UniProtKB/TrEMBL annotation, chain A:
Family: Belongs to the TRAP transporter large permease family.
Source organism (scientific name): Sulfitobacter pacificus
Subcellular location: Cell inner membrane
Residue intervals passing through the bilayer: 7-36, 56-75, 141-164, 176-199, 220-239, 245-262, 283-302, 322-349, 361-378, 398-420
Protein name per UniProt: TRAP transporter large permease protein
InterPro entries registered for this protein in UniProt: DctM, TRAP_DctM
Sorted UniProt keywords: Cell inner membrane, Cell membrane, Membrane, Transmembrane, Transmembrane helix, Transport
UniProtKB/TrEMBL annotation, chain C:
Chief subcellular location: membrane
Family membership: Belongs to the TRAP transporter small permease family.
Subunit structure as annotated in this protein's UniProt entry: The complex comprises the extracytoplasmic solute receptor protein and the two transmembrane proteins.
Tripartite ATP-independent periplasmic transporters DctQ component domain residues: 27-156
Record keywords, A-Z: Cell inner membrane, Cell membrane, Membrane, Transmembrane, Transmembrane helix, Transport
Role noted for this protein: Part of the tripartite ATP-independent periplasmic (TRAP) transport system.
UniProt subcellular location: Cell inner membrane
Listed name of the protein: TRAP transporter small permease protein
Membrane topology: Multi-pass membrane protein
Membrane-crossing segments per the record: 12-37, 49-66, 87-109, 129-148
UniProt entry tagged with the keyword Transport: yes
Amino acid sequence: MTELYAIALFLFVLFLLLGTGVWVGLALMGVAWVGMELFTTRPVGDVMVTTIWASSSSWTLTALPLFIWMGEILYRTRLSEDMFKGLSPWLARLPGGLVHTNIVSCTVFAAVSGSSAATLTTVGKMAIPELRARNYPEKMVIGTLAGAATLGLMIPPSLALIVYGVTVNESITKLFFAGVFPGLVLAGMFMGYVALVSFTSKEWNPSVESGMSFSEKVANSRFLLPVFALITVVIGSMYAGLATATEAAAIGVIGALVLALLQKSLTWDSFRESLMGATRTSAMIALILAGAAFLKLSMGFTGLPRSLADGIAAMELTRFQLLMALLVFYIILGMFLDGISAIVLTMAVVEPMVRSAGIDLIWFGIFVVVVIEMAQITPPIGFNLFVLQGMTDHEMGYITRAALPMFAIMVLMVFVLIWFPEVATWLPENMRSGPG
Amino acid sequence: GEKWDMPMAYSASNFHSENGVEFANCVAAGTNGDIEITVHAGGSLFAGADIKRAIQTGQVQIGERLLSGHQNENAVFGFDSVPFLAPSFDDSAKLFKAAKPKLDEVLAEQNLTMLYAVPWPPQGLYFNKEVNSVEDMAGTKFRSYNAATARLAELTGMLPVTIEAAELSQAFATGVAESMVSSGATGYDRKVWESLSHFYEVDAWLPYNYVMVNNDVWTDVSDANKAAITSCADEAAARGLQASKDYTKFTMDGLAEGGMTVGPAGETLMSGLREIGATMTSEWLEAAGEDGAAIVDGFKAMQ
Amino acid sequence: MKILRRVLDFLYNAAGVIAALCLIAILSLIVAQMIARWTGEIFRGAPDYAGYAMAAASFFAFASALNRGAHIRVSILLNAVSPRLKYILEIWCFSVGAAIAWYFTYYAYWFVYWSWKFKEVSQGQDASLLWIPQSVMVIGGGLLAIALTDNLIHVLLKGNHRIVRDTVESHGE
Ligand code: NA
Ligand code: NA
């Protein structure tokens, strides 16, 4: 009975504060405060400061601002134009043609950027005009972009996985490697869908390019060298055991600065803007994480997560049923919340449930990333929808419909993960062992 | 009745945490429900590093902490982590007995009362190669997590690398680290046999986990309930010690089953390590001053 | 009044610049530690210092992030209601926000005070006196509280807040 009352109260205060527009981080602190004042006799203020200090001065967290900074620097380089030049000659002849450059560019850029919005803006600002000029169906251009950009969250580096790893205290390096194959599989599914539509759609009537000779294609591929060099350095340093995830982020920042310098796009102004932008974005996430740490503690004192986990355990759901329940739960939550807030907000309750169900927390990280990727393209709050609205002047409804097939493919991806968990778990479990 | 929250740093399935839950049950029964303790294992309430301050300042009433984590604050807290000073369960029990009066005094100044303490299994050396002498250790990348382990690396000519606990198995898998000093339990939990090949039972030291209660809370407990809690604490200490011994055996077998070479260190290695232990003991005595000397003298007198 | 305005804006911006410098410090510390490891040197306490820089980078940037519209909020309701109701909602949001930020700052002050009084030291290899890095919670939390109050007063007097969103989209998601 007390538990029901507590749940109702937490939810009421949460919706009140979030719904009326209180900043997410501060709203979480407010909910935590109310919970502790009502359900415990502990000194709330001291508890709040103790946990917020512990969570915000964490070494693991330093990967976050660094990967954001790296993305901010690359956003200001010619990286995406070069990627288009290098990739398009190879992809033009595939069924589906240059729409594949959308997906492949997003996949490649995702491997140097930690966020979906950065992937979307960087690839989109270059790909949309090029594809429109070649008369590809607008809906496919917009839809694949909205969907594929979410790979920024799955393919390492990933801000969402850093936040998840810090919240549930699992290795970020492992999570990063767990994301590699699922990201590639998802990209492959998007490309399969494009090919399928190109055969069946009547609107599919792009202007055909005059083909390049093989040697021209190879020559054009030189444009891909910078981005592949950067990927090799960042992911390779982790894989070869030269660096942890945090250190790889530092290597990435330096690599991005070198690249910008070589391309002559590094000016004092662009350096300053990238640094200030990264500082503000990471402060934004840090405030949410601080609020979430306090909320997790407050819930721990009330005993709510444990009794919920016990309650779920008593229902004797199979793992599959539990995952289906969580899938629906996150899809609904994802309509209203951004992915990072959704992760930190729910983990206090979901983590004990998932652990007691015997689900691998590394695998579950990838599961969560797929579902919050969906949240990026579901209305009314979908980050990629907003970004595309700003870039294309289409209405939200149009963009949402264009992205709907991508949403369906991501749901399918959830089942792929459930049926073939090795897609996520094989790489982190089989990393190179031994020195040398 | 009263409700106490008890944060514990290690996972719910760890023997320390299971012992804590039994202690909590014993207290609930012994005080006829006057005091109910909720155990929050796995750092789910406060992380290990924050637990002592949380008890001190009354954020929680009771909790568990590896006190040697606080040796920067007071060298006395590190008495149980001086390498090769008391290298067995029996010796370590004597050392603990010698240190207890001083510890109680230091803790009282910090508004804390110790209820019971349970040792971890003895700390041994993990390597990714066979090691027969201190010279063999030179140049190995050694995971250090505090001042004492960094010093141990320095004295043995190893390269200390700092790895956070969460990144441990990954660091070994990728070769960021090649060696560590830890109990068999850590290696077993982290399945280090995937990357490491040798475990040497050098029994370097046996660090203790302490269950402490806030003094303001403790003062308000009735004498009858105090007696009940103290007797539960004594039972928990005995039960924990036995669990630690059993677990030592269990994890040694587990490491061997995982494919590691598990066994005592050779005489050449041991004598080299004992020399280093003597150096570190004298260094610790310098830091811990008279209090440290009193503890070591008391311990030696019991031998 | 104009002087107060200038002083406040200077404080928000200066703290933002300090936060950016802390970000550079994080980068330098991590690179230094990596190089130390590769060359067999020891850099004691590097992860701890990087952690302190992380806290400083966050807390010093909170206020300027607020003024630049970087902090996320759910604005469906705010955008849907009448101007009159929106005015009331904004007062509510800034009041709640300011109250939480002041509450935090007050307790952060006492937290740091006791760390200073007890000379509490870090448990890491840095063994730093903890009140020094912990002070960023008081300064940064205080600045955030001031910025929220500043905006609240602005809403009350002028009808709207002073938050101006950047044209470049947030790269957080
Ligand atoms: Na990424
Ligand atoms: Na959404």
